[in-house]
């Protein structure tokens, strides 16, 4: 096993700075997900941990050993790539055992490790096949098996599910989670898919422009985002962010939304009278009642999206749109007049200029 630590890591390609002073600790046995939009630096960070990219400054440690200047083969890591990277002329068994063969391990021992890993991944019937005879999901499992047989200190996953269709992504995602539970190996996983991040990660690191915006357990980031970027990046459908300004201040404050609706913010928010804010509420934290009621936001339903298990309502308020999400089926349809009632305990308030979270003083 092995912990991973990045210490003030910077990376530049010529005059372009892509990683800015990143420090991160990943505990022994932890499953850490690096997530962010394209260009956020997540794949570059993974390659730095692997030794495939040199740091411009800073240090990398694995299992408390400085590996900053060590080549990949000396870092005791195994990488699972997006493109499978299997040798087309080799069978499944040969692909899985190739790194062990290069290391000089005896043939009998290689065969035993490959067999044990194939059994774990349900690849035993496929061991004599060539990669071209496998499905995408099977190829990815072979790629994972090739990493597992090496028994590394750290697994590195570089968007391993992005080439799979939706159904296979769910299946292989479950297999990766199950493998981590059984093996307990430290894992660093790169993805742009927030569903993968939320379901797999014990720690999520949200990156933007080569900087860490927030890191922590999935539900902490979801429920307690530090800014609008993190709040918007995690969650489907995305959080509702409505322009507003504060009426009141440090005592009992309210938010005056752009359509004139006045909603209580409760007491204790560290905001000032007249401050421009973004009023944030997640779609699953609002209720809808038919007709117009006091204490809510008057709206007209614009669209109803029904997937069978979920129902998403998009409503027009006259100045912005709000999304509501429900698990139960509701008799609602486009054109219907409704009132949207936010759960005040779930409202998140952000400064409109900086995007930073405005907290209650007791939560600070």
From TrEMBL:
SMART domains: AAA (SM00382). Residues 4-234 form the ABC transporter domain. Pfam families: ABC_tran, TOBE_2. One of its GO terms (biological process) is carbohydrate transport. It is a peripheral membrane protein. It is found in: Cell inner membrane. Keywords: ATP-binding, Nucleotide-binding, Transport. One of its GO terms (cellular component) is ATP-binding cassette (ABC) transporter complex, substrate-binding subunit-containing. GO terms for molecular function: ABC-type transporter activity; ATP binding; ATP hydrolysis activity. Belongs to the ABC transporter superfamily. This is Carbohydrate ABC transporter ATP-binding protein (CUT1 family). It comes from Martelella mediterranea.
